[in-house]
Amino acid sequence: MKKTVILLSLLAVIGSFPLAADAGAQAETLFSRLERLAPAAFTPSTPPQFFGTAENKLKDGSIFDYMDGGGVAWLEHGYLEMFHAEYAGDGGLAITLDVFVMGTAEQARSALADDRICPAGGSGAPFAQSGRIFRYPPDYYTYFPIGPHIVYLHINDDGQSTLLDRFAVEVIKLVEEKPK
Amino acid sequence: MSKKRTLFRLAALAAVLVVLLPALGAGLFAADAPAAKTRVVLARNPKAIDGRDQCNAAEAARLFDRALLELTGAKTAAEAWKALGIVAGDTVAVKVNCNNWTVSLSPKPELVAALCRSLQAVVPANRILVYDNDAGALREAGLLDSPLAGVRVVSTGQGGFDEAQRLTNILVRDATKVINLASMKTVDEKDLIVSLLLKNHIGSLVPADMPKCHGDYDFLAGVCARPAIRSKTVLNMVTGLRATYRRGVPWYWAGIVLGRDPLAVETAAIGVINEKRKAEGLAALPLPRYLAVAQEKYKLGTCDPQLIDMAMIEL
After folding, report:
1. Is residue A18 in a domain?
2. First to last CA, chain B
3. Is the minimum CB–CB distance between A159 and chain B shorter than 8 Å?
4. Which residues of A touch B192 (CB under 8 A)?
């Protein structure tokens, strides 16, 4: 009886931990799926990179290694880790994809409402609710939330914005896909 | 004998007074005399860049060359660089900032090439080092390509770091003169606000020290007071061919700001950003607190507009 109680207590304790571990494991699954993704007719120009926090660095370090001081605002909104990829297309076209893993969907939404992260202005994204698109020639970029994730996509030629919009739809599908 | 000695003493006293009085006088009057103004040039050339971030090499060179002469009052590039203290035999390091997230504000290779060509009036190309902390970003900015032929383009870590000053050896060991070339970037972070000249040298630090600049005004201000930067810097320049007036939102100001005093140049550049913000109906950015620390504690220059002699050029 005593043993059963101890065993059940242990299971309860172990069961209370996995929040962080689950987030990590799911993110890992998501990241490995993202690694296989590329926009049509583009190829990865560099190996994908993975950044965590100062306390929990991933393969390529922390968010500060990626965006320097801009990382402070992200951390204030519960940032956990991120995936970064760059793709090259014909004629010097380049697409950047970042997927940020936040603690919760609420934190993702509050991060996007912070203009230190997502600039004010822009216009609504046709492919994602609460998403914003920004056209500053020659740049075209977008931010949008998917549950606890924030996606940032950029293309270096706003004349090719439909390519980015199409890729955004693929990214949404992949992030929303349940891990197998 | 005693008379002779007295005469000798009087003569000696007179001689001492003749030597010391002018210096004493100068010292006494210095407190009342207005402090000398530091010159800052704000130069624009709308032909240097178009609305799609394409830089015109000839117009960018015209912009830089004209601004340099305006700053120094010289008639030729060689005279101008000599007026700034550069002599044949110097090795000149140019710190650029290519770490630009969201929209690219990396210095245009055409502008950096114009600066390097101008420098070659005094020093050969192989004694000019253009550097930043990320080799990949230098490549993406196009600085590893042909426009800078002959100039060495390197990353901060190449050659290691000086342990005493915690700075790249490019500054401490290799360079005899330094040019700080920052990009006009608004970051809208509560402690930084902008990323200009003082922030630019964070990329000269030992990587482990880089995060210390966030939330620590004294640390950030103090970097440029380290001997290799303070004693070797001859020119401070902010490029705003393309700039941001709020985080991630660019505009084509099509100009550069340059001067000897880093704080005066940074103050003038913030003035340019604030003019744009006013036009867009946004509140003006305050002067970052690290600038006050740099002025008061480290005596790196002045942020006082009364002490800045601004010259405007419109090409």
Report:
1. no
2. 77
3. no
4. 69
The CATH number of the structural domain formed by B39-314 is 3.40.50
- Lookup: tokens for B160: 């290691």
pLDDT above 90 coverage of chain B, percent: 73
Q: In the predicted model, what is the mean pLDDT of residues B256-264?
A: 98
**Furthest C-alpha separation in chain B:** 90
Cα A8 to chain centroid, rounded: 37
Residues A155 and B114: their CA atoms lie apart, in Å, by: 29
The alpha carbon of residue B254 is apart from the nearest alpha carbon of chain A, in Å, by: 15
Nearest residue of B to residue A117 by CA position? B247
The pLDDT score that the predictor gives to residue A141 is: 96
Domain hosting A30: range is 25-176
Q: Which residues of B touch A (CB under 8 A)?
A: 51-53, 99, 101-104, 136, 187-189, 192, 195, 202, 210-211, 213-215, 246-250
Residue that is written with structure tokens 């992200």 in the block: A74
B53·A137 Cβ contact <8 A: yes
Q: Is residue A13 part of a domain?
A: no
Confirm whether pTM is higher than 0.90.
no
User: Considering only B140-144, B188-192, B208-212, B305-309, which range has the smallest mean pLDDT?
Assistant: B188-192
Q: Report the amino acid identity of residue B61.
A: A
Instruction: Say how far apart CA A142 and CA A67 lie, in whole Å.
Output: 17
Taking CA atoms, what residue in B is nearest to A92? B140
Domain harbouring A140, CATH code: 3.30.200.100
* Number of domains, chain A: 1
In DSSP notation, B82-111 reads HHTT--TT--EEEE------SS--PPPHHH
Q: Is residue A118 part of a domain?
A: yes
Q: What does the pLDDT read at residue B12?
A: 52
Distance from CA of A141 to the nearest CA of B (A): 8
Q: Does the residue A70 lie in any domain?
A: yes
| pLDDT value, residue A16 | 40
Confidence check: pLDDT of B231 > 90: yes
Q: For residue B188, what is the nearest residue in chain A, using CA coordinates?
A: A116
- Mean pLDDT calculated for residue range B18-37: 50
B21 Rama class: left (phi>0) / alpha (psi -120 to 50) / beta: alpha
The parts of chain A modelled with pLDDT lower than 50 are: 7-8, 10-22
- In a mutational test of the A interface, the residue from B195, B244, B247, B276 whose CB has the highest number of chain A CBs within 10 Å is B247
pLDDT at B158 exceeding the cut of 60: yes
User: From A66, which residue of chain B is nearest by alpha-carbon distance?
Assistant: B101
